[in-house]
Amino acid sequence: MNTKQYFFFALFMSLSMGFVMSFIMAYSSLGFVDNFVFFWLRTASISMCIAFPSAFLVAPIASKITDKIHAKCRVQTPLKRRVILAIIMPAMMDIIISTVSTSLNIGLKNGAVYFVKKFLISYANGMIIAVPLVFVLAPKAMATAKKIAPSKE
């Protein structure tokens, strides 16, 4: 993929996953409290501002890590590569989004131990949702990015 394709891939992935992931993160941190929608949309808007540049930077790194792991597999198939990418990319992105979401929603007002506990719950819930989402959305986002910004090769 070229730079333009990574740009559109990151844009589609961050927008499509941003709303879903921020909902999960806000729910994991707060539960359904009064003004939940406000907290969720605030988290979504800030998370997407962070998720897009992060995805733009993480996508090529995740792709290289995926290629290295996939190359070591005895049998290499597109499905195996897709599964590996669906684990690597969310693992990298979820750390960033969980930290932002947990910081925005609860901060350190209840202490560092409480923050870490909520972060880990948020991270685990995020991974449960993100891995299948990336498995389904990443190929569609890549195909769309390639259509919008075709390679000049």
Overall description:
There is one protein chain. This protein is mainly alpha-helical. The protein contains four helices and no strands. The radius of gyration is 16 Å and the shape is globular. The chain starts with a helix and ends in a 5-residue tail after the last helix.
Quick structural summary:
The chain is mainly α and 153 residues long. The protein has helices at 3-30, 36-71, 78-105, 112-148.
The portion of residues assigned to helices is over 70%
Which class best fits the helix and strand makeup?
Answer: mainly alpha
The termini sit apart by 11 Å
The shape, in one word, is globular
What's the total helix number? 4
What integer value in Å does the Rg equal?
Answer: 16 Å
Order of helices and strands: HHHH
**Stretches with pLDDT under 50, minimum 5 residues:** none
Tally of extended strands?
Answer: 0
User: Residue-averaged pLDDT, rounded?
Assistant: 81
Beta-strand proportion:
under 5%
Largest sheet: none
